[in-house]
Automatic annotation (TrEMBL):
Its main location: cytoplasm. The gene is nadA. [4Fe-4S] cluster binds at residues 115, 201, 289. Pathway: Cofactor biosynthesis; NAD(+) biosynthesis; quinolinate from iminoaspartate: step 1/1. It catalyses: iminosuccinate + dihydroxyacetone phosphate = quinolinate + phosphate + 2 H2O + H(+). InterPro entries: NadA, NadA_sf, Quinolinate_synth_type2. This is Quinolinate synthase. Its EC number is 2.5.1.72. GO terms for biological process: 'de novo' NAD+ biosynthetic process from L-aspartate. Coiled coil: none annotated.
Length: 332
């Protein structure tokens, strides 16, 4: 190593190199308050808003203009007048915002924030299911790629899936993709027989019925909430099965002082903040989504400084996926 210098390391774009010596001498990590102030200035300059899903880390939730579930965020994205949307969630959520606002710039703090469930379904799989089930309507959970939404008849979220399926004539067969467990929940709620794809959320898959049993034993009288992405035997043991935003409402309205939370761990931050007098017990202490946790204040700041990474989609996919999302919003 020349002159005894330290090895070089990449900057945040992974392009240029800086030596460790230079980094230490010239850059000190800003504190959270300083980051928030810089973000606020850039938001005003670019006429930007920050949307964050309920599973984001606390500091991201705190800086967001809106925190919500997929349906709330989609509705807001469809009506915002902001020039720039910074979407703190996972990739398919940012794609949804772009589909609903094709003329606006949609940024994501980290392109690596993917979704394993979304990756389980492809446009080719949709074509196969249509061939095997002629005349069927394709109802697609928003946890899916834009190219899959473009192949769909209508989209849904966990908050409105029952309503969407119920709106379809009973004699019409329904292909429900990609989440088999949300699909199972909808079948039980509507009495409809759906053609299910075998996708699932690896995070919710880790919550076991035995976890709920143990939590009830250790916390008698606790209020148990669960997400419909959980396995059916988990959902059946919960007092309320709902989207994350409806969970927030249910917890506010329920008098129980202890709440067992059967969903991704990030939800507890919002619930605790809104209900400081209540105790929240995770049904599964290891059920955090690594993809949801890659965003940070630093990455939000960098996105606003660089106006990237930006979500872009082909015109044809934008148009066809928009039709499926618009149908969902009209029925929600």
């Amino acid at each position: 190593m020349p002159n005894g210098s330290f090895p070089g390391i990449f900057d945040r774009e992974g392009k240029t190199m800086k030596t460790f010596e230079t980094l230490v001498r010239t850059e000190t990590a800003p504190d959270a308050e300083e980051l928030v102030d810089k973000i606020r200035v850039l938001k005003e300059r670019h006429r930007a808003i920050i949307l964050a899903h309920n599973y984001q880390i606390g500091e991201v939730q705190d800086v967001a203009d809106l925190i919500g579930d997929s349906l709330e965020l989609a509705r807001y994205a469809a009506t915002t007048e902001a020039d720039v949307i910074v979407f703190c969630g996972v990739h398919f959520m940012a794609e949804t915002a772009k589909i609903l606002n094709p003329s606006r710039k949609v940024l994501v703090p980290d392109l690596k924030a993917g979704c394993p469930m979304s990756d389980m379904i492809t446009p080719e799989e949709v074509d196969r299911l249509r061939r095997e089930n002629p005349g069927a309507i394709v109802v697609t959970y928003v946890n899916s790629p834009a190219a899959v939404k473009a192949k769909s008849d209508i989209c849904c979220t966990s908050a409105n899936a029952v309503r969407i399926v119920s709106s379809i004539p009973k004699e019409t067969p329904i292909i429900f993709i990609p989440d088999q467990f949300l699909g199972d929940y909808v079948q039980r709620a509507t009495g409809r027989q759906l053609i299910l794809f075998e996708g699932f959320c690896p995070t919710h898959m880790r919550i076991m019925a035995s976890d709920i049993d143990q939590a009830r034993q250790e916390h008698p009288g606790a209020f148990v909430i669960a997400h419909p992405e959980c396995q059916p035997d988990v959902a059946k043991k919960a007092d309320v099965v709902s989207s994350t935003s409806r969970m927030a409402t249910a917890v506010r309205e329920n008098p129980a002082q202890k709440v067992v939370v059967g969903t991704e761990l990030g939800m507890i931050y919002r619930l605790q903040k809104e209900n400081p007098d209540k105790e929240f017990i995770p049904a599964c202490s290891s059920c955090d989504c690594a993809n949801m946790k890659v965003n940070s204040l630093e990455k939000i700041l960098w996105a606003l400084e660089d106006m990237s990474p930006e979500i872009t989609l082909p015109e044809g996919i934008l148009k066809d996926a928009r039709r499926a999302l618009d149908r969902m919003i009209e029925l929600s």
